[in-house]
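Quick one:
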Amino acid sequence: MKEIACPYLRDLFQNISNNYNAHQHKVKTLDWRYSLIERLDGEVEMLERHVKLIATLKEHQPIGIIRLSELLELPQHKVRYSLRILEQDGIISPSAEGAVLAKGSEAFAQEMERFLKVLEQRSGSIRRSL
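Output:
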């Protein structure tokens, strides 16, 4: 498989793979299955939040945490966390007026498209295995 360039996506994908590998040899109890589903759901929810934040930034940049929180209907601490992660990955940049998209945001969007296609294929394969 092609190496994923975006550190956030690479880490997310690696965490999902590691969680799956760590548990695939354990006894599959009902509690374990729901635990795995819950962790995956949390990762997907966070990814969705990051993408929505980027889309909102495209329309309203520069923008601060409070306004982003209002527009996204999210608590400020979640917005702050997403901004920190996206800044670490070079997708956004801070400014005196608020967050703005960095040049890396276009590369992120392209990488996200590729990642989602791979994820869709893998989830289909998993679904067929059930």
